[in-house]
Structures are given as structure tokens and as C-alpha cells.
Amino acid sequence: MTLRSSGLLLGALSASFLFLGGCGGGGHTSAEKYYLVCANTKIAYWQEAGAGMVRAARELGVQAELVGPETLDVKGEKDEFRRIMAKKPAGILVSPVNPEMLTEDIDAAIAAGIPVITIDSDAPKSKRLVFIGTNNYQAGIMGGNLVAKKLNGKGNLMVFTIANQANIEERLHGYRDALANHPGIKLAEVVDMHGDARVVFDKVTDVLDKSKDKVDGFVALEALGGREIAEVLDRKKVDGKFVVAMDTIGGTLDWVEKGKIEATISQKPFTMAYYGIRMLADLSVNKLPSLTMNFAQDSRSPLPAFVDTGASLVDKSNLADYRQAANNK
Description:
alpha/beta; Rossmann fold; 11 helices; about 15% strand; elongated
């Protein structure tokens, strides 16, 4: 199932009904422990998700911990998931870098009675209970439509991605589809940056050194790339390059304010983890008869297949409002 297969998506309303009926602290103990497993745990994006996890755990009086490799390490994430599964936790949130590599382990956890919810990046072929995150295809459509408008239907783009990561692949599909009716806009090069911001910095530097006219715009499909693109453009005093970033962390908004980034697509990692812990905690108190039921095909399922936490464009026109809302939380 992809996020474009909307017939299987029950929506967020069911999820709200699910945990509002059982959570709020009642029935939980301080011995309950939940984990969020991801890769690149030290980057700002996952620190923000960790803050959402901690907020939910504190409200419920349970324990929660962010774990995983500190770099983009597919095997390291798999090993960490297995280590956590062996602890028999009350529940696991996981963001699979490579869904195929984690599907078997997720299914094993479900078979062992451990609820598993994916956030940010899905493993749709697994038996995970719910995916909570951005509709990444629509986020790509959003970015692609902006590119088409701002480039007036003509130009060469360099896109930075992470190959085989499901959520980012969905964004790229969205961009491609949005630009399909604009043959004058070419994805001149799609670069796998392997989760390493230095790859972005070096590639943009190399392109600008060789020919500033080769690329009209840059797209970062993940959180780390946008600020690196802007940094190179600023250092080399290059203007007129159109840049669309992803997420609002690590100085990205500062570059929007300075005009080096046209816009960035904001996600809600805090909300993903907060909501995920609340849902897992509800399942700990209000246990399902079985975790292995085909919830996606059940028209009376207590679980949605997908909870869309939303995405929005942030540019100079709404930057102040976005920052004010962030400061008020």
C-alpha cells in the first residue's frame, strides 16, 4: 500500500477516538516502557521527535526512550530494533530507513504481542499496526507545484534524496508527477546524499565551481540538505537560484528569512512521536483481541491505517506566524 492508495486510509479521526477513550494516565504504571527506534538519532529532526515522545510519556506517567544509531546506518537500526524487541517493551515506534530490511523484525514483534507503529517512514508490507506521519507524496506534489510556478515552467533542477527510504521516495514521486506537465523543467540530476550533509555541500560547491548556469534550482527532499545548499550559495555569493528545502530545523528558517531558501516544507516530528506514544499506551491498557488481524481490510477496525500529521509550506510570507506558533507551544 502507498499513501496514494487512499481507499485503505481511514484517517486521523479514528485514531483520535482510539486513544482519547483510554489514555490520560489512568491504568498506566511507571514500569511501562516504550521505545522510538530510528537512525541519525543526533540530528535535530529526531531530537524534536524525541521531545514529543518525552512529553507524551510524562503526561501518561510511563517511560520512553529514543534509541538507534547516530548515523544513517540501516543495519545498525535493524540491530537496535532486535535488541529492543528482546526487552519485551510495552510498545515500539520505529522509522524504517529501509522498510524491506525491517519488515520481518516488525512482524516478529507483532507475533510476540508487542505493538509496533511506524512513524515518519513506513514499512507498508509489514504487519505494523498504524503509520503516523506526513503524506509524503502530497508533500512532493506541494513542492513540485511551487517549483513549476516559480521557474515559470523552465529550468534544470538538482535534487538531493536518500535512496530506498520509503518516505523520501514518495516525495520524489510527488515532485515527478507535479512536474510531468511541465516538460521544460528537468530533473537534471538526482543525488543520493546517503544521509550525509557533507555530500550536499560538496556537490553544490562542485556544480557552482564548474558552471553556475548548469542548475537553476535545488530541491532537498530531507532535513539536512536545504541549509547546506543555502550555505554554499551564500559563501559563493550566488543569487537567483531557486531552493526548496524540507523541514524547519537546523537553521533552515534562518535561510528562508535571508532569501537563500525560497520555501521549506514543514513536517511535525514532535506530533508523530507524541501521537504514537499515546496510541501505544492506549493499546497497553485497552488490549486488542489480536495484533495480527488484517486491520486495513476491516471496515470496523479500531485502528486507522494511516494518520496524516500534516505538512505546510513555510516562506517569507508566513515565516513570522510560524515562528510565533512554535514559540507558544
